[in-house]
Amino acid sequence: MSLLSRFITTLNLPNLLSLIRLTLVPFFIVALSRGDFMSALILFVAAGITDALDGLIARWWKLQTPLGAFLDPMADKILMTASFIVLSLRLPNQDFILPLWLAIMVISRDVIIVVIAYSLNMVHGVERFPPTIWGKGNTLFQVATIVMVLWSNLSSVVAPVLPYAYGGTLFFTILSGFHYLYRTSKWLKRESTPKG
Questions:
Q1: CA–CA separation, 87 vs 179, rounded Å?
Q2: Which residues in 95-117 are b (16+ Cβ under 10 Å) and which e?
């Protein structure tokens, strides 16, 4: 079976939703580049809905596939990375800019984790990297921060909350990053300990 055939046969509904989320990213970026924060917010929320649905459907109907395990987190990371980068730039009609230092912290953490995960996979054959509660908290704060920045550029009513959102995102970015490093070092130490 060819690579294309394998791709098509594993393209179930959850994986299709992940692909839709990926295709929304360019439209999201274009909307931001035009200063159309309403469209950008709608697209971001729509992408979030596809994320919630693909995981729910995959678990409920037992449709988890290796393709889905790759597509889902990749779509999430591309969307979040694009959001943090573009919103830290000066855009048309933008009154509230996401701090560049926060974008750098968030993206640096993700790059470090991806490099470690890739290294563990290549050297030790580790294929599963289950999220921790701190990682989930980090994702929640990141999503909330992006939504609030978009919303603040439509209505300044939520703008006073932005510093707290930035602080929470920074806290969970650092905490989850260090926890990931701690968990990895603990696993490596256990693997290096002679058995028996």
A1: 27
A2: ebebbeebbebbbebbeebeeeb
Tens of pLDDT, residues 13-49: 888 999 999 999 999 999 999 999 999 999 999 999 9
Of residues 113 and 98, more confidence is placed in 98
Instruction: Reduce the DSSP state of residue 98 to 3 states and report it.
Output: coil
Same domain, 188 and 150: yes
Confidence at residue 8, expressed as pLDDT on a 0 to 100 scale: 45
Question: Which of 73, 94, 115 is a domain's end point?
Answer: 94
How many Cβ atoms from other residues are within 10 Å of residue 156's Cβ?
Answer: 12
CB-based contacts of 81-84 (< 8 A; 24+ apart in sequence): 81/107, 81/110, 82/25, 82/28, 82/29, 83/28, 83/44, 83/146, 84/142, 84/146
Tell whether pTM > 0.90.
no
Residues 70 and 135 reside in one and the same domain: no
